[in-house]
Amino acid sequence: RGGCLLLWRLVQAVPQQVAEDKFVFDLPDYENINHVVVFMLGTIPFPEGMGGSVYFCYPDQSGMAVWQLLGFVTNEKPSAIFKISGLKSGKGSQHPFGAMNLPQTPTVAQIGISVELLENLAQQTPVASAAVSSVDSFTEFTQKMLDNFYNFASSFAVTQAQMTPNPSEAFIPANVVLKWYENFQRRLTQNPLFWKT
After folding, report:
1. DSSP the chain
2. 183: phi > 0 → left, psi -120 to 50 → alpha, else beta; which?
3. Neighbouring-strand partners of residue 19
4. Per the count of CB atoms within 10 A, which of 9, 13, 87, 156 is most buried?
5. Residue 51: pLDDT above 70?
6. Among 65, 154, 62, 150, CA closest to 111
7. Least trusted range by pLDDT, from 31-40, 44-53, 58-67, 138-147
8. What phi, psi does 128 have (nearest 5°)?
9. Which key words tag this protein in UniProt (predicted)?
10. Would you state the pLDDT for residue 137?
11. What b-and-e string marks burial along 66-85, b requiring 16 or more CB atoms within 10 Å of the CB?
């Protein structure tokens, strides 16, 4: 089961099931929505090897449904934030909701979730301007940056015997860098947003 959160509005935890593997959340007054958060509730995971492609649908000027792929949620990445404010004038993309005659109201958009094989999700390209952002991707980036910095700094490590005295240079002991690296990693694991406090 999944949920959809419109920032500054109540959580929608009950989607409309429009097919065995397709679900839709209505977004009333979508013109005033900038971001949506799509997340798994944690009660029912995706079946093994499956995930959900997340689509944004809005009515164009003639009332026809325009669908755009925002991204994905999976058991390993159960939530994502999508920016939808810049999508309302974009072009539609291929989508799995085509055969369904979902009612379109001028002021109501929809978030559609299609349950699909993970290998199929990997071959799809979301709309770039949806600017997917999540704690998971931030944590992954931070971890990679930490690793890169530590490996880079460690590549310059020399023993005291190898050091050439140079009064204009300061040296930081490698164990200090390692201690910082381990502390930062520990804090990041406990709370990915600790740096905001």
Report:
1. -EEEEETTS-EE--PEEEETTEEEEEEETGGG--EEEEEE-SSSPPPTTEEEEEEEEEE-TTS-EEEEEEEEE-SSS-EEEEE-TT-TTS-----TTTT-----BTTEEEEEEEEEEHHHHHT----GGG--B-HHHHHHHHHHHHHHHHHHHHTT---GGGPPP-TT-----HHHHHHHHHHHHHHHHH-TTGGG-
2. alpha
3. 22
4. 87
5. yes
6. 65
7. 138-147
8. -60, -35
9. Cytoplasm, Nucleus, Protein transport, Transport
10. 63
11. bbbbbbbbbbebbebbbbbe
Provide CB contacts within 8 A for 53, sequence distance 6+: 69, 71, 72, 96, 113, 114, 116, 121, 124
Span 104-125, mean pLDDT?
85
Report which of 111, 128, 120, 35 is spatially closest to residue 74, judged by C-alpha positions: 120
- Compute the CA torsion angle 131, 135, 124, 7 (nearest 10 deg): -50
Give the integer Cα–Cα distance in Å for 70 and 58. Answer: 13
Q: Which residues pair with 79 in a beta bridge?
A: 39
Distances (CA, A) of 76 to 4, 125, 130, 161: 18, 19, 20, 48
Task: Quote the tokens at residue 4.
Answer: 């959809």
Q: What does the block give as tokens for 128?
A: 């770039």
Q: Which of 48, 86, 49, 41 is nearest to 68 (CA)?
A: 86
Measure Cα distances from 93 to 55, 57, 65, 76 in Å.
10, 10, 11, 26
User: Can you tell me the mean pLDDT for 49-78?
Assistant: 86
